[in-house]
Specification:
Elements (H helix, E strand, L loop, with lengths): L29 H4 L8 E4 L4 E4 L12 H21 L12 H9 L5 H15 L2 E3 L1 E3 L10 E7 L5 E7 L5 E7 L9 E11 L2 E8 L7 E7 L4 E7 L16 E5 L4 E4 L8 E6 L2 E6 L5 E5 L4 E6 L5 E6 L3 E6 L11 E6 L4 E6 L5 E6 L4 E5 L4 E6 L11 E4 L4 E5 L5 E5 L5 E5 L12 E8 L5 E8 L2 E6 L5 H14 L1
Parallel strand pairs: 4-8
Antiparallel strand pairs: 1-2, 3-31, 5-6, 6-7, 7-8, 9-10, 10-11, 11-12, 13-14, 14-15, 15-16, 17-18, 18-19, 19-20, 21-22, 22-23, 23-24, 25-26, 26-27, 27-28, 29-30, 30-31
Helix pairs in contact: 3-4, 3-5, 4-5
């Protein structure tokens, strides 16, 4: 299993003692009160060092409940983390992780190249700082008027598809061009299409039909039934309505939860739709459909590239694969791989060698499965989820895993050793309508793009620069670049 063969790295030193910044904010207060006995009907205030009586939750006159106390504690924690980030007081996940010591140990031959680059990426993650982007649009009514629900980047991270909630219900769709994002520019262009609005969107993906990322798959709910739509991406960049191409296909179905596009040539032009108790695979050109019956709703999907195999995650916690070349769909013999989680699966991500599958569920568990042994080999702790369908973002080039929790914190893990590297607070108070949606890439904006994390929350877009400004860190990065050449 070469992907995980790394020597243990020791960077302990007295220069950076204290609690790791990667500690989950939702559990940070537990350590302060763990030694205090819990009394029924009372709560303990660690600041005032005394107990207070809890009032019934239905009491509207200054109610004091566990829920309100937890919300207050979480908000105080968020504001404290934001203040630390503003003052550059962030702590690394490893005590003593700094550029000068890492560079010295590398020069002495104490670190291999793999571990050296891995620690560089940890430093870069901890040095990311938030900057707000300016959104420009040919239509002044487009930018900054509706909350972002989700964003989805294309395969080369030149554009992101945005889904925004509208005030009177439903959603509207747009495309943000990231080519303007650079070292000296924090401006992006957003294009909207007014012909496809007011439909609730549950899932989106990019489709490569006539050329890479030429179309968009949209799945969701209409007035009565659900819908699946495949439309050209050019609809969002052509200002002349008369020249716009029409929708390639659109059909009504039961409520759609997920979708995925197949890039394997043996299932060319096919996309899948995860529905209630079934999977629908459709050829976008011929219209031919295959139906696979399941025992639960299919909430997450992804196609393999090397083989025409579709991986599915269900509300029941089951994860299974389908070879779409099969003609017979009777029984459950067509389920090639079967894994199990204890709660509803919200995301499936196949790693590039296609021997490992990353799976997240509604208990906040994130597991890496070895598909050859059908065994869990890694667990990534700290993620928070109770009932939301939240995606994972795997970046194997940088060795990072990124996920946004239902508590609105963005967490980044080391992909190899499952260490939680950083917990990023949201710029807005935690709420169900303010869960950030993110995209991470070493090339935001295409081949000549900039590395970083893109975050959409409420009506704003933020950019976290994935670079190091500290002189020591810059020297180390230059040294690393010289080693590569």
């Amino acid at each position: 299993m070469p992907f995980f063969r790394y020597e243990q790295v020791e960077t302990q030193t007295s220069q950076n003692p204290g609690t790791s910044q990667a500690e989950s904010p939702s559990t940070s207060n537990v350590h302060q009160t763990s030694s205090v006995p819990e009394l029924p009907g009372f709560y303990y205030d660690p600041e005032k060092n005394r107990y207070f009586r809890l009032l019934p939750g239905h009491n509207n006159c200054n109610p004091l409940t566990k829920e309100s106390i937890q919300r207050k504690e979480m908000e105080c924690q968020r504001l404290r983390l934001l203040e630390e980030e503003k003052k550059c007081m962030k702590k690394t996940s490893r005590s003593g992780l700094n550029s000068s010591i890492i560079l010295l140990k590398r020069q002495l031959g104490l670190f291999s190249s793999i571990n050296y680059y891995r620690l560089i990426h940890e430093l870069k993650v901890n040095c990311m700082q938030r900057r707000k982007l300016e959104i420009k649009s040919p239509d002044s009514s487009v930018s900054g008027t509706n909350n972002f629900k989700l964003i989805a980047a294309d395969t080369v991270y030149e554009r992101i598809l945005t889904v925004n909630d509208v005030e009177h219900g439903g959603c509207k769709y747009g495309i943000v061009n990231l080519s303007g994002l650079g070292k000296d520019s924090l401006t992006v262009e957003m294009y909207d299409n007014l012909y496809f609005t007011n439909r609730k969107v549950n899932s989106v993906c990019w489709a490569s039909l006539s050329h890479p990322d030429s179309h968009l798959c949209l799945m969701g709910a209409a007035e009565s039934l659900g819908y699946a739509s495949l439309l050209p991406a050019s609809l969002f960049s052509n200002s002349n309505a008369g020249d716009q191409p029409g929708m390639l296909c659109s059909f009504k179905i039961s409520t759609a939860w997920s979708c995925a596009w197949c890039l394997n040539p043996q299932a060319d032009n096919c996309f899948s739709t995860g529905l209630s108790r079934r999977v629908l695979v459709t050829n976008a050109v011929t219209g031919h459909r295959q139906t696979f019956g399941t025992s639960s709703d299919v909430l997450a999907q992804q196609f393999a590239i090397q083989t025409p195999v579709l991986y599915n995650g269900c509300r029941s916690g089951e994860v299974f694969s389908i070879d779409v070349r099969l003609r017979s769909h009777k029984g459950h013999g067509w389920k090639a791989t079967r894994l199990s989680h204890h709660s509803a699966v919200t995301s499936v991500n196949l790693l590039k060698d296609e021997n490992y599958l990353m799976v997240a569920d509604m208990e906040g568990q994130i597991k890496l499965w070895d598909l050859r042994k059908q065994k869990c080999v890694k667990e990534y702790e700290g993620h928070h989820n109770e009932h939301a369908i939240l995606p994972l973002h795997v970046n194997e080039e940088e060795g990072l895993l990124t996920a946004v929790g239902q508590d609105c914190y963005t967490r980044i893990w080391n992909l190899q050793d499952a260490r939680l590297l950083r917990t990023i607070p949201s710029p807005y108070p935690s709420s169900t309508d303010a869960i950030p949606s993110v995209a991470f890439s070493s090339q935001l904006g295409g081949a000549r793009g900039v590395p970083g994390l893109l975050m959409a929350v409420k009506q704003d877009l933020y950019y976290f620069s994935y670079k190091i400004d500290d002189p020591y860190c810059l020297h180390m990065m230059g040294h690393a670049a010289s080693l590569r050449t």
